[in-house]
Every structure is written in C-alpha cells, then in structure tokens.
Amino acid sequence: MKKHFALLTCLSLFVFGKMSAHDGSQLWLQGTAPTATSTLEIAKAELAQNWKGGEPEFGFAKIRKKDEPVGSFSIFIKAGKPTIFSATEIGMLYGAYHLIRLQQTGANVTDTAFVEKPSYDIRILNHWDNLNGTIERGYAGRSIFWRNSADQMRRNADGEVNEEDLLQPKDAPEIPSLDHLRDYARANASIGINAYVPDNVNASPKVLTTEYLLEVKKMADVVRPYGMKTYLAINFASPMVIGGLSTADPLNKDVQRWWTAKVKEIYKLIPDFGGFLVKANSEGQPGPNDFGRTHAEGANMLAKALKPFGGIVMWRAFVYSPSDPDRAKQAYLEFQPLDGQFLDNVIIQIKNGPIDFQPREAYSALFGAMPQTRQMAEWQITQEYLGHSNHIAYLAPMWTEFLQQIKDIAHCPINNATSPARALTAISAVSNIGNSPSWCGNVMAQSNWYAFGRLAWNDELTPCQIADEWARQTLFADCSDAAAAKALASVKSLMLRSREAIVDYMMPLGLHHQFAWGHHYGPEPYCDIPGARPDWMPSYYAKADREGLGFNRSSTGSNATGQYPADYARVLDDIDTCPYELLLWFHHVPWGKIIQHRYGDRVARESLWDALCHHYQHGLDEARAMQRDWEHCQGQIDADTFADIQRRLRIQTRDAQWWKDGCLLYFQTFSCLPFPDDVEPAVHDLDKLRAIKLGITNFECPSQELLDSVR
Ligand code: GCV
Asked: How do residues 476-492 score in pLDDT, each as one tens digit?
C-alpha cells in the first residue's frame, strides 16, 4: 500500500500542483470515484488513492450505541497511523473522507483523536430538475439526471439549441452517464450529504410511471454505495393523470389503493427508497385542498403507504394565495392549526424565511410553532435571488444566521442535539448543480454546495472555517508561501463579505422582493404588469409612498409580528427596537425617521432615506472590494478559474451599480430627497432602467453580452 501512496502522491501533485489546469470538474476532491459496489471498499480505495500517511485501519463497533446517529465515526491517529472506528460502513466512508480533508487542509494528522456525529439524520439535496433536462432556477446548464447529453437536442446551423427542445418535455425517459452520477454521489458523500430528490417539486406525474421508475432505479443503484438515498418529488394528482382515476381525494379508497400499489412497486425496484417530497396547493400545483381535505389528510395518506417500508413524506409548507393581505403569514395560518395531526413519518419542510429565499429574511415563524410536528428547514443553494451564477455569493453566513435564530429565538428542536428522544431530523437545500463543467456554473458557487453539506453534518461550524476548508481544497494545493497565504486570505475575505454586500446593494434594511419579473435577475422595483398577482409584484412588498417605505407587519398592520414568540414579537413590533436589518420587513418607516444602523464598520444615526442611500453605496463599494480581493489570486490559482471569476465580479459590480441606481432613483420619486454628499450620484437614467427586459427563461443566467446590450 505504501508504494501505492507514493505513486498517487506524485500523481496528485501533477494533477493538483499549484496553478494546474482546473476546469472545476474535480470540485474539492482528488483522484477519481472508486467503482466498488461496497461502501467499505470505496472507503479503502479512497484512502489508497488519497491518504498520504501511515496505513489506515478500520475498527468496527459491534453495535451502534443507542442514540448514535447513523454515519457517526471516531478517528484515532497515533504517530501518523490512523484508525477509523464506526458501527457502520457509511461511518467508515465518512471517516475516510474526513481524514483526507484534514490532510488536504493542513490539519494535524500525526497524533489526534476525535468523534464526529451528524447534526441531522437526513441531509438532502433537492434538485428542481425537469424531466426534459431543464432546471427550474438552475444556472449551471442542464440536468445531470434527465436527458443530459447535448446531442439529444436539435441545433440550428449556428449550433444553437432548438427552443422547443429546451421547453417541451419529451416522452422517453433518458438519464445521463452513470459515471457522472457516481462522481455526484462521491462528492456528496465526501461532505456527508446522504439523500437527493432528482426531480422538480413542480413535479411531473410521469416520474411515477414504470418507465421512469426503471430509470430512477438505475440512479439509485449507482449512488447507493456512497450512502445516498433516493427520494422523489411527486405530483399529488398522479392517480388521475397516470392512474386513470377520476379523483385524487386522499380519503377516497381507490386513491389510497393506487398509492399503496405505487409505493409497493417503487420499493420492489428500490428497496431503500427514501420517500416523497410534496409541493401541494402552491403555485398551481394540485393538492388535498382541491378535494376539500387538509394538508394533514393529504400527507398522512402518502405516509401510510410509505410507513411499512420505512419511507417518509417531506411535505412543503411553501404556500400562499393570491388573495392574501400578507403573504408572509400564509404558511403559519395554514399549517400551525394542523399541529399534532401529522403522522410521525411526515416532516414539514419549511423555507428558512416566510417569503421566498430572499437575500435576508426574518426566520419563518412556523419554526417552533408546531411542537407536536416534525419540522425541517429548506435552504436554497441555487442563486435564484442572488444574481444567478453571475454573482459570487457565499451563503454559509446566511444559513448560520438562520440556525442561530431558530436556536436562540424559536427554541426549535430540529437537529440531533436539540430534538427530543432523537426523533428523525432532516435538513434540505435546493441544489445549484447542472451539467456545466464546474457543476455549479462557476467554481466559487461550488462553495455553497460544500457549505450546505458541511453544515448539515455539523451545524456548529462557522462560515469562516468552512470557507477555509473549501478554498484550501479547491483552489490552493499549497499555502506555505506568503503569496499563496495572502491569496487564500483574500479569497476568504471575499467570500465572507459577499452575502452582506449583496443584501446591501440589492435590498438593505429588510427590503425584499424587488426583483425583475419572472426570472428574478436584476432590480425592478418599478415593475408593473397589468393584471398580475399583487404578491408577485415588488410594489406589494416595498409599499413606497410619500410618507415612507416598508411593509407594516406590526400589530398596527398585518400583525405578522404576532406569529413569533411573545418576547421576540415585542421587539419586532416596536419600530424603535426592531433590528435595523429587518426594519422594512416589519414596518412602514417614514423617510425622515432617525434610525440607528450599521454598514461595514460604521454605526450611524440618521434618517431612513440617508441610511438607505448609505447601504446601497456600501453594497457597491463592497462589490468593488471583492474585485480587489480577487486580484490577489492572480498567479496563485488556475488561470482559467481566475479569469472566469474576475469576469463575473465585473458583472457583479456593474449589477450592483444597476441595483443602487434603479432602487434609489425609483424610491427617490417618493422621498423627493437628495442623496447624501458621500453617496455617488447615479450613472444610469431611471427611464432607461425601467425599460430593461432581459427576456430570459427561468432556467438561465443572463450572459454578459445580453447585460451589456441593455444597460
Ligand atoms: C420550484 C419560488 C420559485 C419557483 C419555485 C417555488 C417553490 O416561487 O420562484 O421557481 O418552484 O419557489 O419553491 O416551489
């Protein structure tokens, strides 16, 4: 084995030496995915190809300790020789990846001992992939699960894909290369992700036809040795659409029989199938309400069918109706009264905030408000509202902010440390993965896939720790010289400032949903679509008028504050105690109201208008600072990666300017106040910005050329 290690060390130096060619396809990993079908064999093969210390040993614990989450492991390293202990093979594999990570990141791998346990039992990626290969809100190419290969699409003489092939579902199921799925499973296992949903929550009933299930089985067989469980997003009306029934009423016996038989068919093909993810009665999707039944009746019907096989239902709480006076209250109003009515193999999957993955949201008040019901969080890795794959946005700070809130304020038991009697716990995120060479649209966006996995495994890791680990493994082979160390520090600085920069240049002080119609790229506070749903319009959220700005969700308004725990509700409800980060989320604030706030290192007391101007300016300044940070990487990382991110940061900075000018010039038509002296005058003309229509679909990122042509 030693010889093997030496050879592989040379090989990996060749592949990963400083400034080696790197298209991002390798992610944060080294070597190739072992093809073994046993999990333990994979662990051995990974160590054989990537571990450079003493020969590792595996120590199997005979029985798993009570309350010890599956996949837990401990590592002892003495004089460079490691032993991994675990009760399970998957624990051995996680241990192997952990060892390699320690070595890659320059940690102590000579003498150490520690135990690792996952924070959540189910650590799941939701893919919004359509069966025709497009990805809803995907900015990294086409699906890796469905109709992947480009030659399946017709192209015109210029090589452009036929629009119809992008938009129309095809009848025949096809899945892409199974090798690519193995790479996918390996990357997930390396960070502890143990489950995935390969199809969109806006689900096609077709995925449950036998034809498609046979394809899903092939996927499940490839990813299983890497500890990945397969789930499916289902369409609640499937019994009608593909089952020929006249109803999908969950209390109807024929409907129940249909689901029972379908679940049996699935488990025959995929014995370790995880269960269903369901978007019901939301944005036009069918659901139990269509038949006069509750979410609980719908979820329980599916849960009963899955129960004998150990399957679960993840039922989404993302609901809102066009007639709501306040969309932010809807999920709570529909779900909270159902507390205690869901079976124990149902988990309610709740977006972190009550609206929709905005750059900053208050946490969803549903967390902690249903003590008799299992709950899990849903995050969004794909940057639907964060500049798609053009902007560099490291999201760990957003997710840890949420985790802190639900721990400190909601006292919500969703992880293994807080959950009573170790009830089943889970956490999910909407993936940013497609078939682009870098998997995620650009190399920096991989850090969010990585960060989700690491936080799902250990939700006490800090954004800084995760950024450090990721950057060392992905961008730098060796940080021992001063220039490389400086570049690493700059990448981390860029990553850690990126989220707050985005909040500042897009929607500071609690503003939300000021995005362009449909595709959600760029600002459109002035959006006006005659006859459109009011809650899809930016004006519904900003409520700008001559008096001020912001949505009054206090007790004098929609009283969304009343959905939070009493102490916190009191803080939010008072315009003078509400945190400035959420001020315009909860209050309609007069333009001249003096507020205390912070931007960057500065604490200021000034009018709302001046504060707003300073945040937009600060966001733009931060985008420029991120560009400067990146310049320190030149010559220290792969040249193509450097140039690609440099180009994206240029777009990001121009977009930040667009956001600042578009929002401030528009809100100025209400405030009628000048910019403070230290805020740069606009470089755009409001009328020209109002006229911008990018004309892109919901599954593409605008190109630089397109953006340059409209501004
Ligand atoms: C999958 C938002 C997005 C939709 C998405 C939906 C959801 O509305 O814009 O694309 O649909 O959330 O989470 O179900």
From this structure: 978 889 999 999 999 99
For this structure, is 116 an active site residue?
Answer: no
Return d(Cα 41, Cα 93) in angstroms, integer: 9
Q: What is the pLDDT of residue 172?
A: 52
Q: If you measure from the C-alpha of residue 86 to the centroid of ligand 1, how many angstroms do you get, rounded to a whole number? A: 39
Sign of the C-alpha dihedral computed for residues 408, 411, 415 and 418 taken in this order: positive
The pLDDT, as a whole number, for residue 155 is 43
Interval 241-259 mean pLDDT? 98
Neighbours of 245 (CB within 10 A): 17
Q: Identify residue 166 by its one-letter amino acid code.
A: L
E strands, 100-152, are 112-116, 122-126
Q: Does 174 participate in catalysis according to the annotation?
A: no
Tell me what pLDDT residue 173 has.
58
Catalytic residue flag (residue 500): no
pTM score of the predicted model: 0.94
What is the Å distance from ligand 1's center to 142 Cα? Answer: 18
Which ligand 1 atom lies nearest to the CA of residue 128?
1
Residue 653 to residue 647: CA distance in whole angstroms: 10
Q: Which residues pair with 229 in a beta bridge?
A: 195
Among the listed residues 384, 469, 610, 644, the single catalytic one is 384
Radius of gyration of the chain (CA): 25
Backbone phi and psi for residue 405, each to the nearest 5 degrees, phi listed first: -65, -45
**Confidence label for 462 from pLDDT (cuts 50, 70 and 90):** very high
The 10 Å Cβ neighbour count of residue 254 is 12
Candidate from 128, 378, 382 with most ligand 1 atoms within 8 A of CB, to mutate: 128
Cα 184 to Cα 193, 359, 380: the distances in Å are 11, 28, 18
Could you give the count of Cα atoms lying within 13 Å of 656 in the half-sphere of its Cβ?
A: 32
Task: Report pLDDT for 13.
Answer: 37
Place of tokens 């010039």: 665
What 3-state DSSP class applies to 625?
helix
Q: Which residues line ligand 1 (CB under 6 A)?
A: 128, 136-137, 200-202, 279, 283, 318, 356
Q: Give per-residue pLDDT as tens, 173-219.
A: 566 678 899 999 999 999 999 999 999 999 999 999 998 999 999 99
Catalytic residue among 129, 199, 249, 356: 356
